[in-house]
Amino acid sequence: MSETKKEELMTTSSSFVDGTKGELIYRGYDIRDIGPNATFEEIIYLLWNDKLPNAHELSLLKVALESKRALPDLLLNVMRGFPWDAHPMAVLRTATSALGLLDRNADNITIDGAREKALLLTAVIPTMVAAWERLRNGHDPIAPRAGLGHAANFLYMLNGEEPNPDAVAALDSYLVLLADHGFNASTFSARVTTSTGADVYSAIVSAMGTLKGPAHGGATQRAMEQFIDAAQHGDVAQWFTEARAAGKRIMGIGHRIYKVEDPRARILRPLAEKLANSSGTSEWFGIARDIEGLARQDEYFIERDLYANVDYYSAVVLYTIGLPVDQFTCTFAMSRIAGWCSQVLEQLADNRLIRPKEGYVGKRDQVFVPLAER
Ligand SMILES: CC(C)(COP(=O)(O)OP(=O)(O)OC[C@H]1O[C@@H](n2cnc3c(N)ncnc32)[C@H](O)[C@@H]1OP(=O)(O)O)[C@@H](O)C(=O)NCCC(=O)NCCS
C-alpha cells in the first residue's frame, strides 16, 4: 500500500462491522454463526491466531489462562487501599496500570512479549473485577478455581459458590458477542497508544479509559439504571413519554455504525428472555422489551434509524445473573480485552504512528501583543 493510502485508511483483519447490512465478522466468521456456537476461549484463540483452535490448541489456551489468573499479593494490597466508593471501572483501570508497574518486563513489545501480556491481562482482569467486588463489600477475595472456564470461574470468584449453569452460559455468550468490534473507540485508543511504541499495559489502560464513557461501554450501566427507573415509575409507557419530553436519550439505543438492528442485540434478546424465564426474574426483560417496542413505534426513532444496540439486552443479562450495575463496564472490558489485544498485536506486527489528518479551523495571522499592553 502506498504511503498516502496508508495515511488515509487504517486496516484490520480482526473484525468488521457493516452497519447498513447489520453484519459483524470476527476473522471471517459471521457473528450470527459463531456467536451462538463458540465459547469465549475459542473466540480469544480465533482473534489472536486468525483460525479457530482444534481441541488440543483450545485446551492449551485454557491451561495457559488458568495458570495466570491469580493476582500478585502486592497488587491486592494496593487495591485494599483504594477508596471503597470508587467506581469499579476506575479501580480496574488503576489496577491494570499497577499490574504493568509491577511487571519488570513490561516494555517487552516484541510479538512474543506482547502475546504474553495479552494472555496475562485476559486471564487476570476477571480476578481483579471479582476481587474488588469482594473487597468493597468487606470480604476477602476468592482465589480462582482450576478446572472452571473463564465465565464460570468469574462467577465463582464473586461469591464462592458453584455457578449456575444458565448464568455461566449467558455470561459466556455475552463475552463472545462483545469481544471485538472493528475500530470502536476503545480499540482505536489501544491502537493509537501502541503506535507510539508504548507498552501493552499502557495501551490497555488507554482503552479502559475510553470504554468507561457513557457513549461507549458505560451505556450498559445507564441502560439498566433506566430500566430500574422505569420500574420505580410504575408505568413504562408514561415513563417513556416523560423521558422523551425531557429530551433524554434512551440508553442502549442507537449506534454510530449500525443503522439497522445490531446483530448482537438480535442474539442477546432471546438469550435474555431465556435467562429471565429460567431465573424466575422476568421483570427486567419485560421492561426492556416494552421500552424497545415503544421506541420502534415512535417516528423519532424510526426516522433516525435508532435500534437497540448490544448494551441494551446486555444490561438485562448481566443484571439477571446478579452483577451490580456499576460492574457492567468492567464485564464489558473482560470481553473486549480479547479484541483490544488482537488489534494491539496487529498494530505491533506492522507498526506506524497513528496521527489523523488535521482539519484546522482556528484563527490565523494573529498579531502578538506583549502582556503589559493587553
Ligand atoms: C451511540 C450514540 C452515541 C451514537 O450517536 P451518533 O452516531 O453520534 O448519533 P447522534 O448522537 O448524532 O444522534 C443522531 C440523532 O439521533 C438521536 N439519538 C441518538 N441516539 C438516541 C437515543 N438513544 N435516544 C434518543 N435519541 C437518540 C440524536 O439526538 C440525534 O437526533 P437529531 O438528529 O435530531 O440531533 C447514540 O445513539 C447514543 O447516545 N445512544 C445512547 C447511548 C448508547 O447506547 N451507547 C452505546 C453505543 S454501542
Automatic annotation (TrEMBL):
InterPro entries per record: 2-MeCitrate/Citrate_synth_II, Citrate_synth-like_lrg_a-sub, Citrate_synth-like_sm_a-sub, Citrate_synthase, Citrate_synthase_bac-typ, Citrate_synthase_sf
One GO term (biological process): carbohydrate metabolic process
Record's keyword annotation contains RNA-binding: no
Catalytic residues of the enzyme: H255, D311
Keyword annotations: Acyltransferase, Transferase, Tricarboxylic acid cycle
Keyword Signal assigned: no
GO molecular function: citrate synthase activity
GO cellular component: cytosol
Protein name: Citrate synthase
Organism: Candidatus Promineifilum breve
Chain's gene name: citZ
